[in-house]
Design goal:
The protein is mainly alpha-helical. The chain contains seven helices and no strands.
Length: about 110
């Protein structure tokens, strides 16, 4: 079962996340549990595999937004870094970012 304590151990800034949910713990936890259902994870992985930097930017930017709003630092930090590189159309291997994001997603899912 997902708890605030488990999210703190995961690395989330739950104080900030709760503030953004008007202090409503149940709402915050409900929104966090919806994160893995986001299509953006699959879209990002697919776009990188296809080397479509524009689509990858859109997906990374969406992930950055939803994860940052809920203060899920382990997901938002690599998504944010990746977003800025993609915004600049940096031609590079993004696999390390995908690995970090996918690992953080798996760790989050394990908390449910």
């Amino acid at each position: 079962m997902l708890t605030i304590d488990a999210l703190q151990e995961y690395g989330a800034d739950t104080t900030t996340g709760l503030k953004r949910c008007a202090g409503k713990e149940a709402l915050y936890l409900k929104l966090v549990q919806k994160i893995p259902q986001s299509d953006s994870f699959e879209l990002l992985n697919q776009a990188i595999a296809e080397q479509d930097l524009e689509k990858a930017f859109e997906a990374a930017h969406a992930l950055k937004g939803i994860c940052a709003n809920l203060a899920l630092t382990p997901l938002s930090e690599p998504a944010s870094e990746m977003t800025e590189l993609l915004r600049a159309h940096t031609d590079m291997d993004y696999q390390d970012f995908l690995t970090k994001i996918n690992k953080a997603l798996d760790e989050l899912k394990a908390l449910f």
